[in-house]
Design a protein that fits this description.
By secondary structure, the chain is mainly alpha-helical. The chain folds into two domains: about 90 residues, Arc Repressor Mutant, subunit A (Orthogonal Bundle); about 170 residues, no CATH class. The protein is built from twelve helices and two strands, in the order ααααββαααααααα. Strands 1-2 form a two-stranded antiparallel ribbon. A hairpin with a 2-residue loop joins strand 1 and strand 2. Helix 7 packs antiparallel against helix 8 and helix 10 runs antiparallel to helix 11. The longest helix has 21 residues. The chain starts with a helix and ends in a 27-residue tail after the last helix.
């Protein structure tokens, strides 16, 4: 979602609403730790917000009271950020659901994770998942996070060698064409890929089972049905997938390090739900 789209419902709203929404957008979707009045004004102009050219942003910010606070200065100008009250007001103005503590925890977890993902497509999928969580699109969050996770496992398996991958794959799908590059995994069903990853020693049997449950949830969320996962279900999915795929210690050849715990929170070694 672009700032233009985010501000669209506020085209006829007072300037304070547009400023609050802009601060919220950059904090939540761009990772900003605060903005100067000049930065807010420039963003509003780029988004073609009505009245932006004549807006006195410093004056608007100074009158927002408990909705904003200053965090220092940049280029000789005050840096402003939203307070908790300001975040709540911004969400109300643009019609977002109230923030839930579990969502905030999951967003924080994935935001820290993004910085560690080197593969660009996988990183972008996780970034999309974060955006979906922030606006309450739980099904989409599940789908995007799974896409980033399975992409990561594809790359990790391929680093072990084409011969090993294809030998393991033929054991479970004799009709599958040999893979010539990691992108060819797109022709392999995720359920079969998980079994291949287990054969390669990347995951163990318990982790395969847990990821299989996660795949089931992903499939229910991706298909056009009336199924709506609850926040606890999605939070559990995130904990399992992140713990196994992104946080499990790996040896140089991509295998799990059995001498270390699988994740800081117990992850795949705890009893399955």
């Amino acid at each position: 979602m672009t700032l233009v789209e985010f501000l669209a419902p506020l085209s006829k709203a007072p300037n304070k609403a547009k400023v609050l929404a802009t601060l919220y957008y950059f904090a939540r979707y761009e990772g900003s730790d605060g903005m100067t009045s000049a930065e807010v004004l420039a963003a509003l102009k780029r988004a073609r917000a009505p009245g932006a050219a004549r807006m006195n942003v410093p004056d608007v910010l100074s009158k927002l009271g408990a909705h904003v606070d200053t965090t220092g200065s940049r280029n000789g100008m005050k840096v402003w950020r939203l307070t908790t009250t300001g975040e709540q007001e911004a969400r109300r103005l643009v019609g977002l659901p109230d923030a839930e503590p579990e969502v905030e925890v999951d967003v924080a977890t994935l935001t820290k994770l993004v910085a560690t993902i080197q593969d660009r497509p996988a990183r972008e999928f996780v970034e999309e998942s974060i955006k979906c969580l922030q606006v309450g699109a739980l099904r989409a969050a599940v789908v995007f996070l799974w896409a980033g996770a399975i992409r990561t496992l594809h790359r990790r398996a391929w680093a072990m060698g084409a011969a090993q991958v294809n030998n393991a794959l033929r054991t479970h799908d004799a009709s599958c064409r040999p893979l010539r590059r990691d992108d060819d995994f797109s022709n392999v069903k995720d359920s079969i890929a998980l079994t291949v990853f287990q054969d390669l020693g990347m995951i163990d049997k318990a982790q395969n089972g847990t990821l299989g449950e996660a795949l089931d949830l992903r499939n229910r969320c991706a298909h056009p049905t009336k199924y709506r996962p609850g926040q606890k279900k999605v939070s559990s999915f995130i904990e399992d997938v992140v713990g196994i795929v992104f946080l499990s210690p790996q040896t140089p050849d991509g295998r799990p390090d059995s001498d270390q715990p699988s994740s800081p929170r117990g992850g795949p070694d705890r009893p399955g739900r």
